[in-house]
Amino acid sequence: MPLLRIISQLILPVVRSTKGNIMKVSIIGPGGIGGVVATLAARCGHEVILTNSRGTATLEDQVRTLGPNARAASLADAVQAADIVVLAMPLTALSRLPAKDFDGRIIIDMMNYYPMRESQIAVLDDGEMTSAEMVQRELPGARVIKALNNQDAPHLLLNAGTGSALPVAGDDAEAKESVAAFLRDLGYETIDAGMLRDSWRMEPGAPIYVWPYAPALPGGMDPLSDDAKVFYVTTAGIPVTRQAARALLDQAKRPARIGGFPEDLPPTWVAVVANWQEVERLSREMEARP
Ligand SMILES: NC(=O)c1ccc[n+]([C@@H]2O[C@H](COP(=O)([O-])OP(=O)(O)OC[C@H]3O[C@@H](n4cnc5c(N)ncnc54)[C@H](OP(=O)(O)O)[C@@H]3O)[C@@H](O)[C@H]2O)c1
Known about the structure:
The chain is of the alpha/beta class. It contains 13 helices and 8 strands. An 8-stranded mixed β-sheet has the order 3-2-1-4-5-6-7-8, sandwiched between helices.
């Protein structure tokens, strides 16, 4: 069982949606980060629908782990049923989505542009539009909101309920408020990060991206050591208050180089991503220690 799912079962109490307002939340791509959103949403009582490119049979174990308010569905069914659709797949998969199916749907775009993974995308490299504006261009009838993209997967899970605030950007005020309510259910404060065109302030490389939500390693710990990797994926960060999050957004300067690059991320997180299975093994060994 993936490490994040083990941790989530240990640390997260079952809580109900803050307003008792149960939503149908469809997650396209319940992998590393989408799986965390699924866990948090199921824990607060929302109905969670998972979909991917390999078919519902490949999601059976994950659905079982999430519990009775989760199910898997085809892409078309998942989108059709949803109050909120979460895009948690690689940005490259965007062009394969059937755009018409998304008309009128509230979308959370949590995808990030990493040129070395995605290959170069000229309209993003040129600063012509933000990646969220590109999502809106590809899904013109959708109500696209940028959110949940600026923490790494372990800390989206570990920092839930600790008082941290996350930015939410979008052009549709009503959809933005629905997404903010959903984030509050997941355990986060929210701040308004403006329109989709402003969402570069929360893209990779911006001050509010990943680093502020990550824990500081104990003094003297080698960031690439096994101890650091286990510490990193099992330790919450210091809460980023709404005031601190606002200051981080305001500090942002549009970078000359667009997109995510490993050198802009905590080195321990880069090392974890490079060898996730090894970190899972180490964590299991640590848990088994007397
Ligand atoms: N990991 C993080 O910490 C993190 C944090 C913030 C944002 N993000 C962003 O979130 C996105 C996903 O990252 P990740 O690390 O979670 O990746 P991941 O672990 O590789 O998961 C990707 C998911 O997308 C699915 N998928 C791939 N192609 C698809 C398609 N054509 N249609 C439907 N589903 C598809 C995959 O399942 P199948 O292969 O079975 O289809 C898988 O469930 C990226 O854009 C990333 O930049 C990641």
